[in-house]
Amino acid sequence: MTYSVAVSGASGYAGGEILRILAAHPDVEIRTVTAHSNAGQPLIQHQPHLRSLAHLTLAETSPEVLAGHDIVFLALPHGQSGQYTDALGDTPLVIDAGADHRLESVADWDRFYGGDFHDPWVYGVPELPVAGSKQRERLVGASRIAAPGCNASTVSLSLAPGVAAGVIDPSDIVTVLAVGPSGAGKSLKTNLLAAEILGSANPYAVGGSHRHIPEIRQALAAARASTASATEAAAPGTTADEGIRISFTPVLVPMSRGILATSTAPIAPGATDDEIRAAWESAYGDETFVQLLPAGHFPRTADVLGANTALMGLAIDRAANRVTVVTAVDNLVKGTAGAAVQSMNIALGLAEGTALTVNGVAP
After folding, report:
1. Per-residue pLDDT for 347 more than 90?
2. Sign of the C-alpha dihedral, residues 337, 342, 345, 346?
3. Of 189, 233, 188, 183, whose CA–CA distance to 75 is shortest?
4. Could you confirm whether 173 is annotated as catalytic?
5. What is the full DSSP assignment across 178-209?
6. Which of 14, 50, 150, 279 is catalytic?
7. What is this structure's pTM?
8. Bridge partners of residue 73, in order along the sequence
9. Fewer CB atoms near the end CB (10 Å): N or C, the chain?
């Protein structure tokens, strides 16, 4: 069976990456691409690297244009997807690459985003440890999927095995991320001009204000449920992510793509070095797209450029009594579009890795 696909926000970075991956997918046909201000223009004018899709013209984004497809991808700015998802009730599969359907907490949405709250959908990070299994089990047969925030999924995958196994203490997580500006989207912003970022590293959303923080806490709370029942993890009067505290500092660096996340957390009392490493080996030893490197090895963002791969290195710092995990992803692939397509494959019962690669581009 060939599935018909529409991609909204097709002139942007995330939309373009979804199209690049789907162009090589044997089970889908890209029929419709949409945009807002760029509607009516050839797709190739905005995505000149997508030569096989040069025949497509950007249509206006509207529920009427998106309806009638088997699959709709929404690659829109945060807060804009909900107006369309409400009108796509008859679409068999909708995948939102924005934040509108990621958060379970209305309070978190109001604090970090604002505007209308929309019901949470199945989270599109298949390898994430949850409740004694993996998130992929929840994706099987799903009709509504929320693709992750790139920083959020990188940090969550980094630490979830340790939280699930009880070998790290999630009450004092510190993570610093070097990120490329493509994660901020394609719209013109002064702080993202080449003159502003070349030769410079620029912190932003410092001091607990980044929108991905509640998403990380939510994911780690789901991982913690692997070793405790929901009632144990969230006692009366508390929330599921109670006791999960994160200091999160992203830094823009002059690379177009990529995230290098360095995350640390205290070692849980009594946890041995063997138990700590075994937690990550057990979680990801059989995974294709999340790989733990040998002891003493750490990834570079260059190693995952263009790949749907999260590579991570683990260090145990007994002097500081902390575990450090360094994870590299391509923010537009594993961080967004690759995760969305991988989740689509699982939902439809297709081979999980269809159209996705573990091989990066070098140099």
Report:
1. yes
2. negative
3. 183
4. no
5. EE-GGGG-SS--GGGSHHHHTT--EE-STTTT
6. 150
7. 0.95
8. 7, 95
9. C
